[in-house]
Amino acid sequence: MPDKLEWLNQHFVLLKAQKVAALQAEQKLPLNTQLAELALDFPAAEDFIKELGRLGKFKDGCGVLCYALHQRAAMWWAYCCVLDLRAELIAAPQEPRDIADIAKPRELKVPKWAQPLPEQPPSPEEQKAQQDLSKLVSDVNKLNAQIKRIVPPRLQELFDNAQRQSLELIKKETGTDLQAVLKEAVELFGKESALADDEDALIDPQSPILKAEAELKGKLEAVRVKTVDLIKQALPEPDLKRKALLQRNCLDGVFDYIAAPDEGNAARLLELGNSCPDTPEGMLALAGYWSFGDLAPAARQVVPTPPGLMANGLNALLLQCALKAGGRYTFAERYERYFILGVETACGRSSWGPYVEQGQSKHALELANIKNYLQGHAGQSKDKGAQSASAADDDHPVSASQEADALSAAQRAAAQAAERLKNMRRSTFVQGRGEEQK
Question: Could you tell me which of 433, 356, 371 has the C-alpha nearest to residue 402?
Fold first, then answer.
């Protein structure tokens, strides 16, 4: 396959087979019932992939591209997807997490719709009712005063004595009097009314249930802290510099393999991929090893790679990239970007040719652009240097100002990539989807 692929048409020229049925038979392409029925209407592989894009089924489209693209083109596509993710994470990195945060109690944030309503001023009806009640109380007090003036003092004295004797008799028999009972009832009513307005006041802070809850929470927190300390002691401290170096080595090895897919470069990918298989770069290297077609490149006897092994690896890689924490795009948006990159590769518009001619990999050029930007601004401050947030494989510490400059440069690079992909969306399959919606 030539190292310079430049086609100006829209046709897919880098597919292994022209028919979906051939991909199913030869490459073991799995299709669910819905996709199999769609393939009956679009038997050509190119039309089938474009229809998936037109319908917005970008994840399914990426899955088909993993099986349909030639090995070398598929590896270039996956390599570009990993670089797209790296640029996205530089512009919007994942928030750091501490193992001590595992099961840590967090304050419950009550949503606005569940919060108590603020006190509202009384309505006109309530104001009128309050005024009427005040007037009624005033009228009753005036009436009582008039009655006292009308009743003769001697008669009032006889009434008071009789009432006092009655109350004393009741108190002697019951232990209380009517006035005390009335006063207690009024106080109780006022207290219950206040409690009804404040639900928290209904809870007794000395309740046995609350005490048991607090005691249980204390025990759980003690167990959690002890478990976290044990995990920290048992697990090795993450070596971020070494991890970044291994990821960079994987990218170097993958690009070398794409530029020259020989036995030596293929065998090297197995070792590189196994050094960090839990990262997208490591999975990319393993997929490259599986794409060579021989599972024993250095041996005399050829061990053919089972059909679909590389495609399954690429599917796992894309899923890993789409689920990666951090960044600014959602799961669906990332798959759409990866699908567009796959279409660009299938058409031959995106290839490794220009980078092979320059003798430098794509990821090295992107890193050099960020470093050159930082070096150009190094004279503005003593703290500023030529190091980016993604250049963690260097041995020098990164200052806060260097991180800020690197982030700014990466954000511009990510914005340019986003604009480029936005223009790509105006291709045939996306335009067709817009016309259907109209």
Answer: 371
Q: Are 273 and 286 in contact (CB under 8 A)?
A: yes
**Type of residue numbered 10:** Q
Q: Residue 76 in contact with residue 257, Cβ under 8 Å?
A: no
Contacts for 285 with CB less than 8 Å, ≥ 6 apart? 250, 253, 254, 269, 270, 272, 273
Contact 29, 20 (CB under 8 A): yes
Distance CA(254)–CA(273), nearest Å, equals 10
Please write the tens of the pLDDT for every residue from 243-267: 999 999 999 999 999 999 999 999 9
Cα atoms in the Cβ-side hemisphere of radius 13 Å centred on 52? 29
**pLDDT tens, position by position, 88-121:** 998 888 887 777 777 777 777 777 777 777 777 8
For the chain, the maximum distance between any two Cα atoms, rounded to a whole number of angstroms, is 134
Q: Which residues neighbour 11 within 8 Å (Cβ) at sequence distance 6 or greater?
A: 46, 347
DSSP state of 378: G
Q: Which two tokens stand for residue 317?
A: 């890689």
Q: In the numeric block, which tokens belong to residue 58?
A: 């970008």
Beta bridge partners of 304: 294
* DSSP string across 397-429: PPPHHHHHHHHHHHHHHHHHHHHHHHHHTTSHH
User: 376 vs 149, 286, 401, CA distance in Å?
Assistant: 102, 38, 14
Task: Count Cβ neighbours within 10 Å for each residue of 379-415 and write b for 16 or more, e otherwise.
Answer: eeeeebbbbbbbbbbeeeeeeebbeebbbbbbeebbe
E-strand spans in 298-402? none
- Cut 0.85: pTM above it: no
Q: Across the strands, what pairs with 96? A: none
